[in-house]
Amino acid sequence: QKEVEQNSGPLSVPEGAIASLNCTYSDRGSQSFFWYRQYSGKSPELIMSIYSNGDKEDGRFTAQLNKASQYVSLLIRDSQPSDSATYLCAVVNAGNNRKLIWGLGTSLAVNP
Amino acid sequence: GAVVSQHPSWVICKSGTSVKIECRSLDFQATTMFWYRQFPKQSLMLMATSNEGSKATYEQGVEKDKFLINHASLTLSTLTVTSAHPEDSSFYICSASFRTNTGELFFGEGSRLTVL
């Protein structure tokens, strides 16, 4: 079992819809969770961080964390074509020298 | 967010030459920086952890004599690809942690290396 798993996609949504991206992780002791956006040919950009159970909202983005079920999700409301990118989930393992463990990413395509 | 700057953005070199990539934290001090490599359509691969004032910690399978890392100050880490070969062509990205207790990373712009 991979430590951080994401559906590779591509996930295709129409403009204006809600895009839902999911991530599961294996280490129950994980404390920090991040969503990064990576455009093709560019480096990752941090868009959300979440540390406690529940929802965290920032503009059109909402991160949801459920430690009991070991999943973290990202919702993008009113999706725009400019949101088309690969979304990477990253988790800090409690016992791994606090290194980030990366998922392989989900490719999102927002269609005009 | 915190700013990490990387230079150069693009580099093309001949096989056998060495290439140096710089990574700077512009508005914070970074005791730890991370170097990643990413091949086309693949995920990020951590190469090494760069610690200010001490030797870098390399991931399994990464040749420390080929990828020299120097972290001489709290704002600068360098990666030197020695005797580069075409298979070293890749996208190299550095990152730094602004809040070390959370693991949150900010990335430089990346350096695309092409070895002819």
Structure overview:
- The complex is a heterodimer of chains A (112) and B (116).
- Chain A contains no helices and 11 strands.
- With 112 residues, chain A is an all-beta fold.
- In chain A, the strands form 2 sheets. In chain A, strands 2, 4, 5, 9, 10 and 11 form a 6-stranded mixed beta sheet that branches. In chain A, strands 1-3-8-7-6 form a 5-stranded antiparallel beta sheet, with no helix packed on it.
- The radius of gyration of chain A is 13 Å and the shape is globular.
- With 116 residues, chain B is mainly β.
- Chain B has strands spanning 4-7, 10-13, 19-25, 32-38, 45-51, 57-58, 67-73, 76-81, 90-97, 105-107, 111-115.
Greatest interface (CB-CB under 8 A), with counts per chain: A-B, 21 and 20 residues
Mean pLDDT of chain A: 92
Number of strands of chain A: 11
- How many strand elements of chain B? 11
The rough form of chain A would be described as globular
* Class inferred from helices and paired strands of chain A: mainly beta
How would you name the oligomeric state of the polypeptide chains in this document? heterodimer
Number of DSSP helical runs of chain B: 0
Amount of helix of chain B: under 10%
Distance between the termini of chain A: 36 Å
Low-confidence stretches of chain A: none
From the alpha carbons, calculate the radius of gyration of chain B and give it in angstroms.
13 Å
Mean pLDDT of chain B: 91
Give the biggest sheet of chain A: 6 strands, mixed
Radius of gyration of chain A: 13 Å
Proportion of beta-strand residues of chain B: over 45%
